[in-house]
Inverse folding.
């Protein structure tokens, strides 16, 4: 089974706990979550601090078919929602016949060094692109998330690491079977 997400422990060890140092340096970024009875805001901030552009390369890494991933607080009930956009093959309705293609030079996702990339403005002047993607929006269970720390000196680093581990586990359970299909 594919791994959709993973925590880059090796890179973190090589750089003396780089994510922990990043959290310590930017602990004020967690201020809105301190003392919250729900772990959602804290987990979302921990995620944002673990992925580019906050830290590069990301402490949380993902499969090359994942284009972007975020965690947000659901405005309806305050729960945690994951939003993940992934590269997708074209739908079968389009691939079963190339009648629509008509020698227009259609291109799909471009790959550079194994990464899927958006076409540049120059690329768009040369021909049409059709790039399929999936947007997954799904609730993430809260049961295993650590409680939000009470303040900046209340184990923020450890709680952030634990929140990431839970988010990665839940996202893999949700998305690895999808990635295995294409």
């Amino acid at each position: 089974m594919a791994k959709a997400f993973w925590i880059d422990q090796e890179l973190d060890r090589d750089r003396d706990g780089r994510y922990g140092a990043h959290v310590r340096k930017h602990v004020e970024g967690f201020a809105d979550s301190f003392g919250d009875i729900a772990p959602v805001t804290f987990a979302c901030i921990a995620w944002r601090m673990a992925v580019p552009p906050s830290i590069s390369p990301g402490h949380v890494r993902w499969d090359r078919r994942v284009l972007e991933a975020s965690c947000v607080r659901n405005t309806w009930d305050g729960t945690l929602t994951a939003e993940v956009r992934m590269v997708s093959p074209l739908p079968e309705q389009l691939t079963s016949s190339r009648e629509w293609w008509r020698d227009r030079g259609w291109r799909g996702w471009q790959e550079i060094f194994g990464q899927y990339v958006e076409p540049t403005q120059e690329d768009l002047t040369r021909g049409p692109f059709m790039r399929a993607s999936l947007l997954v929006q799904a609730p993430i269970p809260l049961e295993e998330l650590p409680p939000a720390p009470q303040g900046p000196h209340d184990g923020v680093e450890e709680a952030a690491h634990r929140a990431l581990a839970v988010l990665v586990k839940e996202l893999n359970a949700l998305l690895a079977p999808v990635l295995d299909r294409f």
In short: The CA atoms of residues 100 and 181 lie 25 Å apart. The two ends are 12 Å apart (CA to CA). The longest helix spans residues 156-179.
